[in-house]
Specification:
Blueprint lengths: L1 E7 L18 E8 L2 E9 L9 H11 L4 E4 L4 H9 L3 E4 L7 H9 L21
Parallel strand pairs: 1-4, 4-5
Antiparallel strand pairs: 1-2, 2-3
Helix pairs in contact: 1-2
Length: about 130
Amino acid sequence: MEIIVVPSYREGGLNEIFHLKFGRCDSFTFITVDKNEIIQVKIIVNFAADEPGGSGTQAAKLVKNNGGDKLIVCKLGPNASKALSSLNIKTFQGPNQEITIKELMNLYIEGKLNMTKSAELIKGAEMGQR
């Protein structure tokens, strides 16, 4: 069993859109997968999104504190990358496009998302912008 975390808009959930900015997303959708089947979906509001600085680091702690062990993201800031790495959260590269979380999870379950070192996701990140 694994818990995959996806940055999301508004209320989160499988029908919500994948948020491209990790630390500034509205919420995180926590998806429990067992034997390639989604068995539970939980939404946690990202209270770090409105912080003037350090939102990525705080968001990484939120992911870990709520049981997340894998994260699908488009890009990361350098501090978020370091925090996720130090917390041993595995990162997967999500597409840089509008896609529902359900579609994204189908890609993950089908093995179409690559595990990527968090430091490699920094390229092109827009730090501090919403």
